[in-house]
Prior knowledge:
This protein is an alpha+beta fold. It contains five helices and six strands, in the order βββββααβααα.
Amino acid sequence: xxxxxxxNKDTEVIETRVSDDGLTVRRRRQCLKxxxxxxxxERVEELPILVIKxxxxxxxxxxxxxxxxxxxxxxxxxxxGDQIEKLVDEVxxxxxxxxxxxxxxxxxxxxxxxxxxxxxxxxxxRFAAVFKRFVDVEDFEAEIKxxx
Length: 148
């Protein structure tokens, strides 16, 4: 690590601490030339998750967009804000654990639908209506029969 005071290439680590969440390492360093101390932080560089849309476009995964897509079908149901936050966090965590950083929007929708189905059936049907592009009453009826 280069000393940012004198640009010397020789520094030593005098103290190392791991953050409470375990995701960051804080290091106190001292320059062997000018003896000044400074702090550096190490974090794992995460590659962005890319969502492959139905039309083939790719866009960065947006947790806020996911949250909005879950809040809308949960309106006026028994689903709480905490349950929505937990669902969104779980989906994001599941996506980050996948071997690939490119995920089809359909796959994300399936994950959300499966989780919503366990929480609230009405919210699930509302979400499925948009996600699966229901076009008539028969689509709703078929999905409801699957639930029963």
